[in-house]
TrEMBL record:
It comes from Elizabethkingia miricola (Chryseobacterium miricola). Belongs to the TonB-dependent receptor family. InterPro entries: Beta-barrel_TonB_sf (IPR036942), Plug_dom (IPR012910), Plug_dom_sf (IPR037066), TonB-dep_OMP_SusC/RagA (IPR023996), TonB-dep_OMP_SusC/RagA_CS (IPR023997), TonB-dep_rcpt-like (IPR039426). It is found in: Cell outer membrane. One of its GO terms (cellular component) is cell outer membrane. The lineage of its organism: Bacteria, Pseudomonadati, Bacteroidota, Flavobacteriia, Flavobacteriales. This is SusC/RagA family TonB-linked outer membrane protein. Its main location: membrane. It is a multi-pass membrane protein.
Length: 993
């Protein structure tokens, strides 16, 4: 963590001391005037043995020393000067029990997910509730916040901390506090970072000769004719890329492309630019913080559109209207622009096409036209990116709030507050699918092949929503001798209205510069409109009690009523209670253990719900739904085609929110004047009314409705530890680390979820979620004797194949009845839930040089990759890659892969051979900076100038073995052709005027 010298004109020196707590790093400054001893915060803490750090919690703030719940904080120092486009990048590993994952490296689409303290529902990850400056916001607002605008992030983890937010806090609560102005001289800050990015996991392809030789062996082993005959092999060995092979076609040329497919498509490096400018200042009456940020990021593809940019502006203004009344205004605007091809990139899109292309097929014919005679294994990605159309998208978000706060109104200690917040979101999409002609190359020149997008189309999609939040809150603080009380109560109203519009046209008469007006006939035009909305009203309250700073009690209550549930079931109550004991303030404790600065055990109980997941309960799921259909024929002789209405959805009109009850036992501690600090928590979460679909006879014919009946239990623990120190006069350092674990168990779903299948099983009663099952193996079949003893797995099995173990001794390889009681030869292989997640931080300063690094990782995880990646030649579009050259032969009996075999699925069944160890340690960030000394800047109009070099994700240690560099350990189970994550190195500068 860096230290920036700041030298006011009337001071000689600024002494800077760093303190590391479990929540992050705080920086304190002490000033020295002439002939006066320097006093640092360390001296103060050493004497008082107290920490008065203030932590933002739900609807207020609390001293950390008085907190009785589990809350983690991430300070602004963790977020600053990081070459990341999204604050979630910087949050990885920063707080115990907060697991941040990503599945994509696509510019503007990294698909982050935050899970706080493990699973809260059988229905997948429940997103946390995001609160920015006291206003609940969408994930859209959270994802677009400029990291440089953030002062602090608080994460409410246990039920007692989150219960004040009630029904929407089942996934935890993430509270962001943005920067504000400060009294004093106007300060202008500018920062710029230029980043070079490199993909982490692009598979290396075989050369054409290697691919041809591998394919021929695979075809031979499968008892089929070789794919490349002697004429083909001769062309390949002689580097001839177009040749007539009379054994195959006397007119069309055979192709033998020997250019590296990926080098034709992908950048080795791509770039990101970030610029941030802020102004802050204030007086006794008014303070302000204003900022503007711009981010531009290019993507992996060399050709076609693959870019993202973002503008951020913010104005935070605070004005004292009187001695007692303050007005705060927060205004933020963000605009994102996405420039992409019309074809999706992931999930069967352009990346899948690139990975599935056979090396032999070229992009272009000799005359420059697109080659298109290869079908599903053709090299079409270049054409998709460069010529097949575009998708242009823009998102705009206005997030504004105003609040009036009156302190000591009527009586001392009484505070009244009114807040109004509003988010306006606008999205515009334009997608054009252009018809592109492709050709086969023959002795007579080009001949038309199947075109791409044979029917061109153009569509426009608009989406907008308004989310409003109104709050009224009253706080009262009072004391009676050593007894201190705080009472808070409030009301909140939220409403949300969303509108979508879609218009499209096909068979356009113009194949460029598309317009909805260019459809060749009115029947090729269509449009639709959608509307939805919800509202929620809430009452909430908090009571805290403190006696002499030693004994701490807190309780909260909240009542939520939501329009998304049916009448009679819309309201619910959520309660919490917690207690803590500052034992270090007891004289007997201090006498016995004087080296403890803090020793605070705490216990809590809290109730929340999973209403924040829109996937569980829709806005109007309590109503039966109707669907429109067309083309019902009525009447004689074919009759007329008619539109009809049918039942589309059966309601779930007795649903309640999934309710999560949390219990927590924790300990906060500090030793040696808080040079060493830490915390430990153990917890349990119970969801006893999970929403599960009712099991109905198949003749029902519709999607089964939900019912509250599932039971999920999650247990876990967290530990964090930090130390700050000094060596000599000039070297200061901070070290901190955290580790956490959680494990869940599905105790009941519907009484029938006991089936076990090979691969990943989302839910099996009696097991944790997302378990992986497969077969046990014992190397390869090395000889004929071993072949006789293997369980029957089809007629394809031969020497060099995977040797499966017959676990139940029946001579067959199968899953038995595929139940928990009888799962045949299947064995439990693990779970893809991350376990033992951890982070480690180190920061230091020596004179004007600062250095820091951060590690993040997962200690245990099991997952499987897609068979489209590791099963070569399973189909025409599944190609071998370089690691498949390490295959079984009599001379290579312990190879990484079995013998090549076309369609050899028998070798790639889910088994212990193909599950991957997802444990890893990643160097998330390393940074080296240099700041000019005050003496060097005394004649310059600046107060700070710092240069730095920083890198992100540049080093990963994993146990992926042969898959390193091809698969990333962060990737989701069964991932294939996801946009690769990237490492980066960046150069930056910070200037304060």
């Amino acid at each position: 963590m860096r230290i920036h010298p700041m030298v006011p004109s009337n001071y000689l020196k600024v002494a800077i001391a760093f303190f590391l707590s479990t929540s992050g790093v705080q920086m304190a400054m002490a000033q020295q005037t002439p002939n006066r001893k320097v006093s640092t915060k360390a001296d103060t803490i050493s004497k008082s043995k107290d920490i008065d750090e203030v932590v933002v919690v739900g609807y207020g703030k609390q001293k950390k020393s008085n907190m009785t719940t589990a809350v983690s904080s991430i300070s602004k120092e963790v977020l600053e000067s990081r070459p990341v486009p999204n604050i979630m990048n910087a949050m990885q590993g920063a707080a115990p029990g907060v697991v941040v994952t990503r599945t994509s490296g696509r510019p503007g689409g990294q698909n982050f997910n935050i899970e706080v303290r493990g699973a809260s529902s059988m229905n997948g990850s429940i997103p946390p509730l995001y609160v920015v400056d006291g206003i609940t916001v969408s994930d859209q607002v959270f994802n677009t916040i400029n990291p440089d605008d953030i002062e602090n992030i608080s994460i409410l983890k246990d039920g007692a901390a989150a219960s004040i937010y009630g029904a929407r806090a089942g996934g935890g609560v993430v509270i962001v506090t943005t920067k504000t102005g400060t009294k004093g001289k106007v300060r202008v800050s500018y920062g710029s970072i230029i980043t070079s990015m490199k993909p982490l996991n692009i598979p290396k392809r075989m050369s054409l000769l290697e691919e041809a030789e591998y394919a021929n062996i695979a075809y031979n082993n499968a008892g089929q004719s070789v794919y490349y005959d002697d004429i083909d092999m001769g062309f390949i060995r002689n580097g001839i890329e177009w040749g007539i092979n009379p054994n195959k076609n006397k007119v069309s040329y055979q192709t033998y492309n020997q250019h590296d497919i990926y080098k034709q498509l992908f950048h080795d490096n791509y770039y990101m630019l970030q610029n941030n400018l802020s102004v802050q200042g204030g007086s006794d009456k008014v303070s302000y913080f204003a900022s503007m940020g711009y981010l531009q990021q290019n993507g992996l593809f060399k050709v076609g559109p693959d870019a993202y940019d973002k503008w951020n502006t913010r104005l935070n203004l605070s004005a004292k209207l009187s001695d007692k009344i303050t007005m705060d205004v927060r205004m933020a605007y963000a605009k994102e622009s996405f420039d992409r091809s019309s074809r999706s990139v992931e999930n069967g899109g352009s990346l899948s096409t690139a990975f599935s292309a056979r090396q032999k097929f070229p992009i272009f014919n000799p005359d420059g036209s697109f080659y298109g005679a290869a079908g599903s294994s053709g090299n079409l990605t270049y054409m998709y990116q460069a010529a097949a159309g575009f998708n242009k998208r823009s998102n705009e978000d206005f997030n504004n709030s105003v609040s009036l706060t009156g302190k000591d109104i009527f009586v001392k200690g009484l505070t009244l507050k009114a807040v109004y917040g509003r988010e306006n979101y606008y999205r515009k999409d334009k997608t054009f699918n252009r018809t592109v002609k492709t050709y086969d190359w023959t002795i007579n020149g080009p001949i038309a092949a199947a075109p791409v997008n044979p029917t061109n189309s153009y569509s426009v999609y608009n989406e907008s929503y308004i989310q409003q939040n109104t709050q009224f809150q009253i706080d009262y603080d009072f004391a009676i001798d050593k007894h201190k009380f705080h009472v808070m109560g409030g009301f909140q109203w939220e409403d949300y209205y969303k509108k979508t519009e879609t218009a499209s046209a096909t068979n356009l008469i113009v194949n460029d510069n598309p317009s909805l007006n260019y459809a060749s006939d009115a029947k090729y035009k269509s449009n639709s409109e959608g509307q939805t909305g919800w509202a929620q009203q809430s009452y909430f309250g908090r009571f805290t009690y403190e006696y002499d700073g030693k004994y701490l009690l807190e309780g909260t209550i909240r009542r939520d009523e939501s329009s998304r549930l049916s009448p009679g079931f819309r309201a619910d109550w959520f309660k919490s209670a917690s207690a803590g004991w500052n034992m270090h303030k007891e004289s007997w404790f201090n006498s016995a253990l004087p080296f403890f600065t803090v020793f605070k055990p705490r216990v809590s109980y809290g109730e929340v719900a999973n209403a924040n997941s829109r996937d569980l309960v829709g806005d109007f799921d309590f109503l039966n739904g109707l669907s429109f259909g067309t083309n019902v024929v009525l009447g004689d002789n074919g009759g007329d085609r008619n539109t009809y209405v049918t039942q589309g959805r059966f309601s779930s009109n007795r649903l309640k929110w999934e309710r999560v009850v949390s219990k927590n036992l924790g300990l906060d501690f500090g030793l040696f004047s808080n040079k060493l600090t830490g915390s430990f928590d153990i917890y349990r979460k119970d969801n006893r009314n999970n929403l599960v679909r009712i099991t109905l006879p198949s003749v029902f014919g519709y999607q089964e409705p939900y019912q509250n009946q599932g039971i999920l239990k999650t247990t876990g623990w967290e530990f964090s530890l930090g130390y700050n120190g000094r060596i000599g006069k000039d070297f200061t350092f901070n070290v901190s680390g955290n580790i956490a674990d959680s494990k869940n168990k599905v105790e009941y779903k519907d009484g029938s979820s006991y089936f076990v299948y090979s691969g990943r099983n989302s839910i099996i009663e009696g097991y944790e979620m997302n378990t992986i099952w497969g077969y046990k193996t014992n190397g390869y079949i090395q000889n004929a004797d071993q072949l006789k003893g293997v369980p029957y797995n089809g007629s394809k099995t031969g020497i060099g194949d995977v040797r499966y173990v017959d676990m139940n001794g029946d001579g067959q390889l199968n899953g038995g009845l595929n139940t928990v009681a009888d799962h045949g030869d299947l064995v439990y292989l693990g779970s893809d839930n991350p376990r033992y997640t951890f982070g480690f931080n180190f920061s230091s300063k020596w004179k004007n040089v600062d250095f820091s690094f951060r590690l993040q990782g997962v200690g245990k995880r099991t997952f499987m990759y897609s068979t489209d990646q590791f099963q070569p030649l399973a189909a025409a579009w599944v190609q071998p890659i370089s690691i498949h050259l390490d295959y079984w032969t009599p001379d290579n009996p312990n190879a990484a892969f079995p013998r090549p075999f076309v369609g050899g699925g028998h070798n790639f069944l889910p088994s212990d051979k193909w599950v991957l160890n997802g444990a890893y340690v990643r160097l998330k960030n390393v940074q080296l900076g240099y700041s000019l000394s005050p003496e060097a800047m005394k004649n310059l109009p600046i107060s700070r100038l710092r240069f730095y070099v920083t890198a992100e994700d540049i080093l990963t240690f994993s146990k992926l073995g042969v898959w390193k560099g091809i698969i990333d350990p962060e990737q989701k189970n069964q991932a294939y052709a996801d946009y690769p994550l990237s490492s980066s190195i960046a150069f930056g500068v910070n200037i304060d005027f």
